[in-house]
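ingest -> validate -> predict -> emit
validate: passed (alphabet ok, no gaps, 180 aa)
predict: started
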Amino acid sequence: MKSALLLLLAASAAWAGDLKGKTAAGPAVVYLLPQDPKVKLPAPKESKVSQKGARFNPKVMAVQLGATVDFSNDDWVTHSVYSASDTKKFDLGLYEKDAKKVVTFDKPGEVELLCSLHPRMKATLVVVPSAWFSAVGDDGSFTLEQVPAGKYQLVLHPVGGTETKKPVEVPATGAVTADL
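emit:
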């Protein structure tokens, strides 16, 4: 039974490729929308936004619709994470070092993160209806790994801007390049 499971996992990994690209837009996130309605999205995974040095890290992050985000305080000072965004309004109140607070994101869109004690602390979450996403690097590059083979719409979501889409086909093995 165990060897059959390993064989199944190896076979599924063999049918997944990578998508790489560059864009001049930044800060931004990219994500893929499957064109085949039979493609099932994997369950969302928990993500983490760190608070350290009176900063949020990362400053821009994509999360899958329905995912939870851990806002643990990794700093030596008290913080207060909140958002007044239409996508998700919440206020975690004041909390000390090593305290963990978690929020579930159930609506797609942008969520601006702020700290009421430290006005310079700002970050943006982009909640996307996909399991294949990435923040765009400072150099404009992005990589989506282990994407099931098939046809997709590659979506570029610049923070505070308008989304653009481009059709792409991800191979069963190897990588494809799609610049936006």
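The first strand starts at residue 16 and ends at 22.
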